[in-house]
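Exercise: predict the fold of this chain.
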Amino acid sequence: MYYTFRDKTLVLLLAGGDKSTQDADIAEARVLIAGLSDTDKEK
């Protein structure tokens, strides 16, 4: 599980794996975070 903040909102990313895939999981989490936009807050 990864997380980020958008303004004052905590956004949980329910993605991940185990230690053997950690580097790829972090990269995927960064892509997911980058894909968030301000309009996502309204959903």
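Check your answer against the key: Residues 18 and 25 are 9 Å apart (CA to CA).
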